[in-house]
Predict the structure.
Amino acid sequence: MVVMAPGATGAQIEAVRARLESTGVHVLVMPGELTTAIGAIGDPERVGALNLEGMAGVDRVVPISRPYKLASSELAHHEPTRFTVDGRVVGGGETFALIAGPCTVEDREQTLALARAVRDGGAAMLRGGAFKPRTSPFAFKGLGVPGLELLAEARAETGLPVVTEFLDTQHADAIAEHADVVQIGARNMQNYALLEVAGKLGKPVLLKRGLSSSLDELLQAADYVLKEGNERVMLCERGIRTFETATRFTLDLGAVPWLKLHTHLPVIVDPSHASGDRRLVEPLSRAAAAVGADGIIVEVHEDPDEALCDGPQALYARDFAGYAANVAAHAALMGRSLA
Ligand code: PEP
Ligand code: MN
């Protein structure tokens, strides 16, 4: 939409019309009381390249179409995207996927015990980081490839597909070998080179929202994965930075129904990183189910006091089954059953 300045002359309006028509877009001139607006319907890239802002009499150019293309429910798809991870349904509106496990893989005993506990409690997938993005370079960065191998062992024993973070393109082969779902962490949402490689691994991708990223930016990041021909992408609201410091981040629950309106991709919620406090994890999980999330990714530990990472937000493994039942009851109110 080109908005002309109040004093724009008829000749200036005609000049804009002529320039637009030279690219083959459909042009609609709408005279108003004070200003004239000129609608251009067609390829936004070509209109953008016309430099209309610089033309005499033009006040501003307002893009109407969405900047995200493939993730948009407007253009690419109308039906919600639904896919399976080893038989577990993600998206589509009838199921609720519970992804649970430790923040980070610590050792064999811990990983296997947690995998059994979350499977018995009703989890659809096991989460666990082998490569951890840490705020301080001196903090525990994960076990690396041996951690991936422990996750693979846990999958072999429990049958749970594994969700793990892809941090560095150098790890692509190891991640492709061991992950069932490739997680892109909040800190890497705008690491576009990593997103393109993730899109090429042939695995479903769990894309977390950046700490200070808008939903428009999240959907444009999803476009990076989708454009590689990978349609199996789920988005994750994990809390954003706001002025509020009482919780670790601020869980933007409004993001869930907003995303449901604007994208066909499944949306899950991470109440653990959003709150940083296990006491808030269940109420936020129930709320996520109530606003229509397609699932939850939640941190669980046998002994959170001894956890190497994110202990204060980890649910006790012994509480997981009760937690899962309460969340499942809220998902059921939305017509969803555990995936
Ligand atoms: C995680 O899931 O362990 C993690 C690091 O989350 P985020 O990228 O959302 O901080
Ligand atoms: Mn964590």
In short: The domain at 82-338 is CATH 3.20.20.70 (TIM Barrel). The chain has eleven helices and 16 strands. Residues 103, 129, 133, 185-187, 208, 238, 270, 273 surround phosphoenolpyruvate (ligand 1) (CB under 6 Å). The first helix runs from residue 10 to 21.
